[in-house]
Amino acid sequence: MDIVLGLQWGDEGKGKFIDLISENYDITARFNGGSNAGHSIERNGRRITLKMVPSGIFMKEVQNVIGTGTVLDPVSFKKEILNLKAFDETVRPEENIIISRKAHLVLPTHKLLDIFMEDDPDYTTIGTTKNGIAQAYSNKILRQNVRMGDIYSPDFKSKVQHIVERDYKMLAEGNMILPSLEEINNEFFEAVDFLKIFNCTETEIYLNKALSEGKKILAEGSQAAMLDIDHGTYPYVTSSSTTASGASSGLGISPKKIEEIYGIAKVYCTRVGNGVFPTELFNEQGDEIRTKGREFGSNTGRPRRTGWLDLPALKYAVMINGVTQLVLTKSDVLSGLKSVAICTHYELEDGTLQTVSGVLPENAKPVLKWMQGWNADFANMKSSSELPSELKEFLSFLETELEVPVTYLSIGAGREQMLKMK
Ligand code: IMO
Ligand code: MG
Q1: Does the pTM of the predicted model rise above 0.85?
Q2: pLDDT confidence of residue 228
Q3: Among residues 47, 235, 347, 400, which one has the fewest Cβ atoms lying within 10 Å of its Cβ?
C-alpha cells in the first residue's frame, strides 16, 4: 500500500495528485475525516470538489473504498453523489464505491452542535468546516454512535432518533434557530435509504485480500499533518488521525504493508480556520499569493491565510509520517517574484533556535532565508529540464534540508501540469 498525505494545514493538492497517479492502482481508499475534506479535481477544463468520495473515482477500473476510520454524513454524501453524476455521467459510483460497515455516521445533530459550539462563547472557536466532524468522532469515542453497518438493523431508526432527540433537547435550550425534528429526521433517513445502493462490507478483509492477490492500494489522506488530532497544532486541529499511521489503523492494514509515502506540500503555506501560523503574511504579498493561488476554501469558500514555507513544521511532518517522496505544488503561484522566503528556524523568546517543531510556539519569530525568485512560462512547460535555475535551487535546498527527494512538481492548475522530477 502507498499513501498520499498532506504535510501542512490541508489543501495541498492531494486530489489532483491522486487523480493523476490513481491509474497505477487497483483501489484508492479514504481512511480518515469526512465531508470536511475538499479535494478538487479538474476534468476537461471543469473542476469538481470531492468531499467523501475517493479521488480515484474517475478511473473506471479503480475501486474506491470509504474506510473504517472515516465519518460518513449520509445527507452530504447523497448530495455529493448526485453532483458527481451530474458532473460526469460516465462515473458509476454504485459499482465503484465500497463503504466500510464500521465507518461511523455523522448525524444531523452533530452538524447542528458543531455550528452551536463554534458560535457559543463557552467553547473555543476552532474555525471548523461545520460538518459535525468532531461531534461524530467524539460520540464514536464515547461509544454512543451508530455505524454504517447498523443501517440494516431493525432498531437503527429508533437508535438514531434517541440520539438525535437527546442532542436536540440540549440545542433547544440555546438560542439557535433549529429546523424541526421531523425535517431533520426525514432528510436523514431518506439519505440513509439512498446509501443502500452501495456495497457495504468489512473493508479490512476486502483490502487485505486484495493485497494478498497482488493488487495495489493507494490510501488517500484528507486534512494534513499539522491538523492531526495528536500531532497537529491542538486545539486548532481536526478530530482524526491524518498521518501514515492513521492510514494503517483507519483501513485495518498492517504498517508492514506500507511502501511509498507521498507527502504533499505547497511551496508556501496556507491555513483556514484559527490557530498558530508563524510564517503568516499580513501584507500585500500575502494577498497576492491568495489571489494568484486561488486560495479560497474549496469546502467553505473562506479566504485562506497565506504565508511563507515553514521548514521546522515541514521537517516535523516529514519525520512523523516517514515521507519517502515529496510532491510540491503551486510553484507557478510564486513565479514572477524577485525573491521568495523560506522559514528555516524559529527563534524562541529566550533566543534559542528551533529547527524542527510540531508545537509552533505562539511567540516564536520565524527566521527567514531569502532566495532568488523564478520566472517561467509554465503554461508550455513539458519537462523538468526546462525549469528555471532559481526554482531548481529552491527545490534542491528543500531536498537537502528535508532529506527526501522531490519527485513531482506541480506547475499549474491543469491536470497535466505536474512534472515528474525523478
Ligand atoms: P482537505 O482534505 C484545510 C480545518 C478547518 C479547521 C479545522 C477543524 O481538503 O485538505 P473540522 O471541520 O475538521 O472540525 O475543522 O480543520 N480543516 C481543513 N483545512 N483542508 C481540509 O481538508 C480541512 N479539513 C478541516 O478549517 O481549521
Ligand atoms: Mg481542501
Answers
A1: yes
A2: 98
A3: 400
